[in-house]
Inverse folding.
């Protein structure tokens, strides 16, 4: 989110876009409140810098779109592939661990879910639950997987004609 947001802030003309990108980077570690800070603080400060509301609205809408795409699509997919977690499970674990433990549980939700899956895979009686929660149905992936799935194009052998 930081790279794309830096480019948007530089295009809009907001001063110190590297500082704002660092603020967005630091705030993104907090699960829910961090996204709000990362999106609305630069937009609110741009209201004070620019004369009209055109550039702040462009900045706010751009940061909202970037934040949504990165936070709800790209990051859960990347975490799910690397940790063999279903992307929907990554989002559900945020709510599951965030309810009893608050912000700390939300911050550690993916790690706690991956640890729980590792423990579930060790026992025959709970392995079915681990298979259900895993991304590909295999609690122990044997080959590294790509984040984006590419279709394999068959290579036809030379016919020699």
């Amino acid at each position: 989110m930081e790279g794309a947001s830096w480019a948007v802030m530089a295009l809009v003309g907001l001063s110190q876009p590297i500082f704002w990108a660092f603020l967005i980077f630091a705030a993104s570690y907090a699960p829910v409140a961090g996204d709000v800070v990362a999106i609305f603080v630069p937009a609110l400060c741009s209201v004070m810098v620019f004369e009209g509301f055109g550039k702040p609205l462009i900045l706010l809408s751009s940061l909202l779109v970037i934040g949504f795409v990165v936070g709800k699509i790209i990051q859960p997919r990347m975490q799910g592939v690397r940790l063999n977690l279903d992307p929907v499970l990554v989002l559900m674990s945020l709510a599951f661990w965030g309810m009893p433990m608050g912000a700390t549980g939300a911050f550690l939700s993916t790690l706690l879910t991956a640890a729980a899956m590792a423990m579930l895979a060790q026992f025959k009686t709970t392995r079915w639950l681990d298979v259900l929660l895993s991304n590909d149905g295999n609690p122990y992936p044997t080959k590294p997987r790509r984040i984006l799935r590419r279709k394999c194009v068959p290579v036809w052998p030379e016919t020699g004609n």
Summary: The helical segments are 2-12, 17-27, 33-49, 54-83, 87-101, 103-107, 109-120, 127-133. The mean pLDDT is 79.
